[in-house]
């Protein structure tokens, strides 16, 4: 048995997914996320209820599969599928953990400051919106913003350049004040 997730997603980067470079894969991920969020948000599911429904669906599928006496899946098939999935996931997860470590340890101060400001902004938005609505909005934004960017690249690039200059100016003044305070001590 071939692990379909590994077969379709192996070698893809997150930007490939968000830029819809493989529409079937991106559509499946986007649809799965939206369906899951809608279950939690609209039907007011809890994690326990959702987990029980998934378990019930798996049991019903397994029961139907055993009645029809379809192709049997051996333990070796399961091990191969898991190994292939882990093989594809390990480099991505390792890189993400390394990047997270560098952000948390302030190795790149600009990135860490941006993450801090982003978390404060999202915290403020979280006070105004429910968690599920914020998650829903974020996922829709993640999957639609790259396409909108590609269509309006010149306007967005000029705006981002102005924004970057402003942020660098403020961060530079903050760094200067920080350094002068350190020298006084």
UniProtKB/TrEMBL annotation:
<keyword id="KW-0472">Membrane</keyword>
<keyword id="KW-0256">Endoplasmic reticulum</keyword>
<feature type="transmembrane region" description="Helical">
    <location>
        <begin position="109"/>
        <end position="126"/>
    </location>
</feature>
<dbReference type="InterPro" id="IPR045064">
    <property type="entry name" value="Reticulon-like"/>
</dbReference>
<dbReference type="GO" id="GO:0005789">
    <property type="term" value="C:endoplasmic reticulum membrane"/>
</dbReference>
<feature type="domain" description="Reticulon">
    <location>
        <begin position="14"/>
        <end position="185"/>
    </location>
</feature>
<dbReference type="Pfam" id="PF02453">
    <property type="entry name" value="Reticulon"/>
</dbReference>
<dbReference type="InterPro" id="IPR003388">
    <property type="entry name" value="Reticulon"/>
</dbReference>
<feature type="transmembrane region" description="Helical">
    <location>
        <begin position="132"/>
        <end position="149"/>
    </location>
</feature>
<dbReference type="GO" id="GO:0009617">
    <property type="term" value="P:response to bacterium"/>
</dbReference>
<feature type="transmembrane region" description="Helical">
    <location>
        <begin position="28"/>
        <end position="48"/>
    </location>
</feature>
<keyword id="KW-1133">Transmembrane helix</keyword>
<keyword id="KW-0812">Transmembrane</keyword>
<protein>
    <recommendedName>
        <fullName>Reticulon-like protein</fullName>
    </recommendedName>
</protein>
């Amino acid at each position: 048995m071939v692990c379909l997730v590994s077969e379709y997603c192996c070698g893809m980067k997150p930007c490939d997914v968000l830029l819809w470079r493989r529409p079937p894969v991106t559509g499946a991920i986007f649809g799965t996320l939206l369906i899951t969020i809608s279950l939690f948000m609209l039907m007011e599911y809890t994690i326990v209820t959702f987990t029980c429904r998934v378990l019930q669906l798996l049991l019903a599928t397994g029961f139907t599969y055993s009645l029809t006496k379809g192709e049997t899946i051996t333990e070796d098939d399961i091990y191969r599928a898991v190994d292939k999935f882990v093989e594809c996931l390990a480099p991505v997860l390792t890189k993400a953990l390394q990047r997270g470590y560098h952000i948390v340890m302030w190795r790149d101060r600009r990135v860490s400051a941006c993450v801090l400001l982003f978390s404060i902004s999202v915290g403020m938005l979280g006070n105004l919106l429910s968690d599920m609505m914020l998650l829903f909005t974020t996922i829709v934004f993640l999957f639609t913003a790259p396409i909108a960017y590609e269509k309006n690249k010149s306007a967005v690039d000029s705006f981002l350049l102005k924004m970057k200059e402003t942020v660098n100016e403020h961060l530079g003044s903050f760094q200067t004040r920080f350094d002068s305070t350190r020298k006084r001590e």
